[in-house]
Write a structure and sequence with these properties.
Helix content is about 65%, strand content about 10%. It has about 500 residues and is α+β, with helices and mostly antiparallel strands.
């Protein structure tokens, strides 16, 4: 009964563990979905230039991820810290905070990389700094360990047969002790009764002797000093006294015999007890031997049944292998035909794949040539009136790459030209350093992900070798404005 209750308890514990595990898995899946939605919304807000909103959503995602220990090392948490790092570096221009969040992302996933859409030069530099910090410190993500519940059963009980034998032996030993005690009690009772009877007889004889003595004395007194009577009385008294002494001696001897018999009975009872204990030990030893023999027979039977089962399993396996070999031989012809057909099909697919790859490469070369042409820009004018002249269109397509070409007059002595831009409604400007092209322009390309909204605000600054602003085209508080028309789907997307 106890074993059945323990089995039911273990089964109930396992069922509860399974239900709890399934519930935890469902909760984790719900949290992952919420984290994914918050990250998507944050990236969209970042692309629109709404940096505070993006930060709020990413901080909500981090707080949500800390509710479950399993999410602390989840790839999605690493991606959340990565997005927060990009927001601080390029959005709020807080490189220190950005590097800190990049370090957290790398500690969770050492193989994480910045998405190419977000990988500006400043972001890449900050991410490389964070990677160097993690590599120098040797930190790794902590993975919490899980624990399992104790389902051990109750302690093993002694065998039923051994318990019954011990109970029977205890009952026999108790009966033997009770019998010995009863015999000892009866012997003591008999001795006490004999002693009481002897004492009563002695008192009765003394009383009778005294009465006779009194009678004799009375007779002697009545005889008036008759010497013969006195002598006879005295002799009679002496005889009675001798008889009394003999009776007392007999009583003492009887008492001694009773005491001796009592000791003999006690000794015999002890001998009987020792005999019973010895017989009980022999019975226990016999039962132990019978139990060992029974267990040995059961073990031998189980071993024989195991060997028989293994032999049957081996026979079944041999039969199965034989059937498989026969089937293999029967299917050999059909398989060879299928292999030839599969080979021919693979060859055709390879030819089609090579043709598609050739077409894709030609298209890529065409797109590259067009992109190189746009990157090179128009011919540099021989002279222009502005201190800084930019070949930038007044209207461009939203969601397409924007090529910027600027040049400064020689008297400006510009060592570096920077292009500052932000989408409409944005707070901070994004900055990109223009690089000298083969045609003499200072050029750069603005990623399509940054060309969003209805307009793009920008200004250009040229700095001399001392780092001072030597000339500008527009200002931060009064920038140039480029109208952005809705995307037609034909614009160039940055990868």
């Amino acid at each position: 009964m106890t074993l059945r209750i323990g089995t039911v308890a273990i089964a109930a514990g396992l069922l509860l563990s399974l239900v709890a595990s399934e519930s935890q898995a469902a909760d984790l899946e719900a949290l992952v979905q919420q984290l994914t939605a918050l990250n998507k919304a944050a990236v969209a807000a970042y692309s629109d230039g709404d940096f505070p909103k993006a930060k709020k959503q990413l901080m909500q995602a981090i707080a949500l991820g800390k509710k479950d220990p399993e999410l602390l090392t989840h790839p999605l948490m690493a991606r959340t810290y990565l997005h927060l790092g990009v927001l601080f570096v390029d959005g709020f221009e807080d490189r220190k905070a950005g590097v800190k969040n990049f370090v957290k992302a790398i500690q969770i996933r050492s193989d994480i990389e910045v998405t190419e859409v977000l990988a500006t030069k400043t972001v890449k530099a900050a991410f490389e700094e964070a990677s160097a910090q993690v590599g120098a410190s040797g930190e790794t993500a902590a993975v919490p360990a899980l624990a399992m519940p104790d389902t051990s059963g109750a302690s093993e009980k002694p065998p039923k047969e051994d318990k019954a034998s011990r109970a029977a032996a205890a009952r026999e030993e108790k009966a033997a002790r009770e019998a010995a005690a009863k015999e000892e009690k009866e012997a003591a009772k008999t001795a006490a009764a004999e002693k009481k009877r002897a004492d009563a007889e002695s008192k009765q004889q003394e009383k009778q002797s005294q009465a006779e003595k009194d009678k004799l004395m009375k007779e002697l007194a009545q005889a008036g000093g008759n010497e013969a009577k006195e002598r006879a009385a005295r002799e009679k008294l002496q005889t009675q006294h001798a008889e009394k002494e003999a009776l007392l001696a007999d009583a003492k001897a009887l008492l001694q015999q009773v005491q001796k018999d009592s000791k003999e009975a006690e000794k015999q009872a002890l001998a009987e007890k020792d005999k019973l204990v010895k017989e009980l030990a022999q019975v226990r030893d016999s039962e132990a031997k019978e139990r060992a023999a029974k267990e040995k027979l059961q073990g031998e039977k189980a071993e024989k049944e195991k060997l028989l089962a293994e032999a049957k399993a081996a026979i079944l396996q041999l039969q199965k292998e034989k059937a498989e070999k026969e089937k293999l031989l029967a299917d050999t012809g059909g398989r060879e035909k299928k292999e030839r057909e599969a080979k021919e099909k693979l060859e055709k697919e390879k030819q089609a794949s090579d043709a598609r790859e050739k077409e894709r490469k030609a298209q890529a070369d065409s797109e590259k040539a067009e992109k190189d042409k746009l990157a090179a820009g128009p011919e540099l004018p021989s002279h222009f009136s502005q201190a800084i002249y930019c070949a930038v269109p007044d209207e461009a397509e939203a969601g397409a790459e924007l090529y910027v070409h600027c040049a400064a007059q020689p008297n400006v002595k510009a060592k570096e030209i920077s292009f500052y831009y932000r989408p409409s409604g944005g707070i901070a400007y994004n900055a990109v350093a223009l690089e000298l092209s083969k045609k003499g322009w200072h050029a750069a390309v603005i990623p399509s992900s940054k060309v969003t909204g209805k307009s793009l605000q920008y200004y250009v600054e040229a700095r001399n070798d001392r780092g001072a602003v030597a000339a500008a085209n527009g200002k931060a508080n009064s920038p140039n404005i480029m109208t952005l028309k809705p995307a037609t789907g034909r614009g160039r997307k940055s990868k």
